Every structure is written in structure tokens, then in C-alpha cells.
Amino acid sequence: MKKIFQVILVIMILFISFQSAQAMVVDTVNRKALATVIVALDSFYQNKVIPEMKAAILKQPPAGVTLGVESMESFRRDSVVVYNDYIFIQVRKLDTILAYQKSIPVGPGQDSARAMILYINGNPMYDIPFTIDRGTQRFICQLKKDSKYLKQFNPEFKYIFSKIPAKLRIGFKNGIIIDKDSGPSVFMKYISSWALWCVIGFFGLIIAAYVYLAGKTTLIRVGGARRDQFSLSLTQLSFWTIIIVISYFYIWIATQALVPITGSTLILLGISLTTSAGSKIVDKRRNVEITDLKRSRGFLTDILSDEEGPNVNRCQMFLWTVILMIIFISKVISEQEMPELDPGLLALMGISSLGFVGLKEFEKKPEERNQIRKGKDGAKKSDQS
Predict the structure, then answer these.
(1) Which of 162, 84, 185 is nearest to 128 (CA)?
(2) CA angle 77–82–88, rounded 5-degree value
(3) Pairing verdict, β 66-71 and 86-91
């Protein structure tokens, strides 16, 4: 009995020594090679390899597995990706990455910590998950324009043609990034060049057509003849119509989606329409006949002057219209959606337009203008005599 106990004790000592030696090997052998072995064992033993063993070996994510990042748009240059593109990250040793994913320890109900997400320049894109193509060893995702995490890069696009260097990497929701400090980089653009040139071409056609119609027809003139004065209220209305149409076209081309019209956009159109209607009503009340209208003295002179010369309320309305247009266009370019403007700015434009319509009531009527001219002409004649 004593001999049997001694044999058992020797076997236990040998087993403990073997386990210690194995632990030393685990600590010294290349972890990437062991990860590959584990994947093979997983397959051979039908995924019954001890999870604790994986966790012990795969303490660090595999390195040097990211081969390249490209857009799935065939006409896109290999080094460029654009918002809303579907992209892929080409890797090698896909099984090693998946084995590492399984080794990530999580607590009860925290399986999402293992979920794979996109990282851009080290910043997690929690709302941009991956799908995996095992055949080609690719991770595929979409740079969704409406991603609230992707929007943090918008300020880095200083100009509409800008592109920024970006490292797009595979990572996990627990903060671990694969190949964080190594691997290829790409350039990320806010809008593709072809879409931008398409919008610029459309903008040029609209402006050319508007200038032609404004000069050759009564589109924005007060009366019914091509020689009549230009109307400030009709000019404002036409400006906003063109800006909103071009902005909507730009967003559609850039995002390939039809965005909703915002309340600010409707308010701007409503103010312009109300100003035009109010101006017509004031002219009607003042008994301004079309035959009495003054001939055009030039576009800017017409819209910024009344019968007595340059007018402050007209200049104010024109300036605020231009300022709001610049703000509107810049927000469309930076946010790629129809903007919501500050209520104070909208109120300011409304007050400016209301002041224009209200003060128009006190502008001199055509007959008063004619009487003043006759008086000046008579004074000149008497002086000459």
C-alpha cells in the first residue's frame, strides 16, 4: 500500500512539473503561432478547446494582419474613400482574429463587448458594425453619413474639396484595436469629385438661365415691360428658390438620399412669399399704375433705391438676405442636410422684410415724383430766364 502511494505521489509531481513547463512555453512562444494552433485545435475538436486556454494565450490582439482598405465603388481610387461608401478591410489570418474575439472575457450580459466595429484614427464608430466575408477574408461596412460618431470629423474638412488622412481599423467595442499603430492609411473625403462637379455644373446652368430670364423677361421686374424696374421682393424670392433647389440637388447627389425639408427652409420661403405679396398689396393701395413705373436704372440701383435715392431699409433687407444665404449654404455643405437655422436669425429676416413692406407705404407715389420733377424743371427755366 505504501509503494502504491509513493507511485501516485511521483506521478503527481511529474504532472505538476509538466504543467509548469507548459506554462513557461506559453509565456515564451510566439503568441501568433499559438493562436493559429488553437484555431486548428478548435476545428479538429469541434470548438471544444478550453476557453481559459485561449484567453491565456491570446492576451494581445494579433498584429500585422491588416493588408489594405478600399472603397467598394469600382471607379474610386484605391487610396480614397468617401462618406456613404461601402468599404472593405482586407486581412490575413482571419481565423486568428476570430479566435482572439472569442477569447475576450466578458461578464454576464456583456457579449456586445466582443462586437466588431470600425475605428477611424483611433476613434470608435459604435454605430458602424462589420459584416465578414470569410471567402475573401474581408471585413465590410458602410461609412454611413448619418453616423453621429462619423460627424466628429466634419470640422476637419476645411474646404469642400478637402480630404483627410485616415487609418480605418478593425476593433471591438471594449476599446481594443487591431493594428492600431501600423498598416496602411487612406484619404477620406466628404463628397466625391464627380458629385461635386455635377452640382457645380447644375448650379452654373441654373444661374445662367436665371440671369438670362432676369435680363430678357419680366421675371423679377415690377411691371410688365422689360424696361421696368427690378423688384427687391421678387429678387429675394427668386434667390431663395434657387438656393433651396440647388441645395436639395447637392444633398441628393452627395448622399444618394432624399432628405426631409426642414422648418427653417419653409419659413424662409414663407417670408419671401409674404414680402412679395405685401409689396404688391402696398403698390395696389398706393394706386401705382404700371404705366407710371419708372424705367430701370440698373439692377443694384433699382433694388437698393426708392424715388429719392438709396434707401436704408432696402439695403438692410438685401444685406441680411445675402448673409443668411451664406450661412444656409455653408451649413448645407458642412452637414449635407437641409439646415435648421437659429430662430433669432429667422426673426431678424422677418423683421427686416416687414420693415421693407411697411416703409414702402411712405415712398413717394409716381404722381408726387412727377410734380417734384415739374417743379424742379420750372425752377431751372426761371433761373435761366
Answers:
(1) 84
(2) 70
(3) antiparallel
User: 174: which 3 cell numbers?
Assistant: 471594449
Q: What does the block give as the cell for 284?
A: 395696389
Give me the percent of the chain exceeding a pLDDT of 70: 73
Packing angle, helices 232-255 and 312-335, rounded to 10 = 0
d(CA 383, CA 322): 46
Sorting pLDDT into bands at 50, 70 and 90, what band is 87?
very high
Residues 181, 192 contacting (CB under 8 angstroms): no
Contact 130, 139 (CB under 8 A): yes
305-306 vs 309-310, strand pairing mode: antiparallel
208 with 181: CB under 8 angstroms?
A: no
Calculate mean pLDDT across residues 77-87.
88
pTM of the model: 0.62
The dihedral region occupied by 172, where left means phi > 0, alpha psi between -120 and 50, and beta the remainder, is beta
For residue 123, the SS3 value is: strand
Tell me the residue length of the chain. 385
User: Counting Cβ atoms within 10 Å, is residue 52 exposed (0-12), middle (13-18) or buried (19+)?
Assistant: exposed
290-299 b/e (C-beta count within 10 Å ≥ 16 → b): eeebeebeee
Digit-coded pLDDT (tens) for 125-175: 999 988 999 999 999 999 988 888 998 888 788 777 788 999 999 998 888
* Cα end-to-end span (Å), the chain: 154
